[in-house]
Amino acid sequence: MKGPAPVIARADLVAWAASQRAAGLRIVFTNGCFDVIHRGHVEYLAEAAAAGDILIVAINSDASVGELKGPGRPIVEEKDRCAVLSHLRPVAAITIFAEPTPLQVIELIQPDVLVKGDEYRESEIVGAELVRSLGGEVIRIAMREGRSTTSIIEAIRRLP
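Above: the chain's sequence. Below: its structure in token form.
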């Protein structure tokens, strides 16, 4: 049984990625808020991980989730989101980014595979052009109908 996946600091990402490549591993990258982790997230991460040897997940910092999702978000703070993600089998490593997009992280890691949900057109996927220019591939994964943090929050709000 594997232990929890490490949370990699920004300063260590280049060395981490180099060590994975030196071991002959194909690096898969995805990113998101992962606030209130649910079945859709878990299935998405499993499918993403299957596209290579190791999956690194970049999560939005608390501040950037608030900027993207609005007041009251995130529901779950970043250290707890990292802790939960670190115990999911598909996840090999995690990093946190505070910028509006994960482009800087993608530039550092230079993943072999970049994965996003199919709610994004390929032309909208941040880092897609860079990954393809380096010989990598971009994969869009079908999102699970009715499986979203927003729908969970809305259902909770409707409770008596």
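Residues 118 and 140 are 5 Å apart (CA to CA).
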